[in-house]
Amino acid sequence: MSFMSTFVIEPATPSHLDDLYAIAAAAGVHDHFSPALLHEKLFAAPRPDQFGWRVLAAVANGTIVGFAQGVVRPAARKAWLGLFAVTPTWRRRGVASALLAALRDSWPRDIGEIEALAIPGNYFTPGIDPRYTAGLCFLERTGFERFRDCVNLRAELKADFDTSAEQERLAAAGIEIRRARMDDDALLDAFFEEHFGADWRFEAALALANEPPALHLALRDGRIIAFSAHSGQNREWGFFGPMGTSPAARGHGLGRVLLWRCLNDLRAAGHRSAVIPWVGPIAFYHQWAGCVVERVFWRYRLAP
Ligand SMILES: CC(C)(COP(=O)(O)OP(=O)(O)OC[C@H]1O[C@@H](n2cnc3c(N)ncnc32)[C@H](O)[C@@H]1OP(=O)(O)O)[C@@H](O)C(=O)NCCC(=O)NCCS
Fold it and tell me: pLDDT (tens digit, 9 = 90+) per residue, 85-130?
């Protein structure tokens, strides 16, 4: 009898969250997260019109022994292997391989690329922390290739940043800095259509949905010229981003004020530190908020 006959692959649903969390928390020794955060990653399924979300479980004798998340964006011909973990006693028996194979079977044939973990708008980490050595061995054995590194920074939130002098300076130059409002949608649509695209527009919407809105804007002549956001996802980690300044408005100190306002929000919400994920301009964050590199991730992709 082959190992394959000892477990079956089945869809996992939110009703399985306790079992999935037990496996994920035991495997994810370099991460701290609640069941609610895992639920967001696996089952929030944002933008169902564009992304197909699926979690598959390997079940042996009625018990879940592993799971893998798959996300597909058919219009981009791209898919992601999201979180995956196998219970220690079931490792090296083909469980993760079978889960990935079943996910791939569920995707359209013309998928051009599969990336690990870096799912736009709902990611746990922007790549694999190489300390998850078995995970990267599995990816490399499966044909994934490492193509880039990225980092998460940490900001210590010891005291509020004073933004008043900078805001006065900008106001004198005709630039208003303020928190976004629910009726800013049309301005946000125009800004993101011109500058940063639909994925960041979506993340800005997630941030805007917080109370108070976790989105700050710079405006000139009634138009948005820069933004910064936080808490659109992974809220319990004090999650910053994204942020962006339109090219013509760069170099005038908008970014630092907008960054500070978000970090002040996170501090006010009780966070003692913030995560600046998937960076980006390290020197900017280091200079203006004393951020330091906290995590390194390796990005992997599999071309068919
Ligand atoms: C990574 C993980 C999911 C692999 O699950 P698995 O069911 O053991 O994987 P498979 O049995 O399908 O392994 C397939 C191949 O990957 C490679 N591989 C997997 N684990 C390995 C390890 N510990 N060392 C070396 N190679 C490994 C092997 O080539 C293996 O084939 P082989 O056993 O025939 O040599 C599991 O080790 C795990 O849960 N780790 C902790 C969580 C994690 O790192 N998740 C990734 C980040 S979210």
Answer: 999 999 999 999 999 999 999 999 999 999 999 999 999 999 999 9
Query: Which ligand 1 atom is the nearest neighbour of the CA of 124?
Result: 48
Query: What pLDDT digit, counting tens, does each position of 29-86 carry?
Result: 999 999 999 999 999 999 999 999 999 999 999 999 999 999 999 999 999 999 999 9
Give the nearest ligand 1 atom to 28 CA. 42
- The residue among 233, 210, 197 whose CA lies nearest residue 36 is 233
Domain shared by 100 and 165, yes or no: no
- Say if 143 falls within a structural domain: yes
What does the pLDDT read at residue 5? Answer: 56
Q: What is the mean pLDDT of residues 150-159?
A: 98
Residues 188 and 217 in one domain: yes
- What CA–CA distances, in Å, run from 287 to 198, 246, 264? 29, 20, 17
The answer on 141 and 11 residing in a single domain is yes
Is residue 125 assigned to a domain?
A: yes
* Same domain as 203, residue 124: no
Using a 6 Å cutoff on CB, does residue 9 contact ligand 1?
A: no
Do 17 and 142 fall within a single domain? yes
State the DSSP H helix or E strand holding residue 23, giving kind and residue range, or none if neither.
Answer: helix 17-27
**Residue 294 maps to a domain:** no
Nearest to 122 by CA among 237, 204, 44, 12: 44
- Is ligand 1 within 6 A of the CB of residue 128? yes
Per the structure, the complete domain to which residue 115 belongs is given by: 3-149
Integer angstrom CA distances of residue 276 from 4, 68, 125, 295: 41, 26, 11, 10
Q: Read off the amino acid at residue 1.
A: M
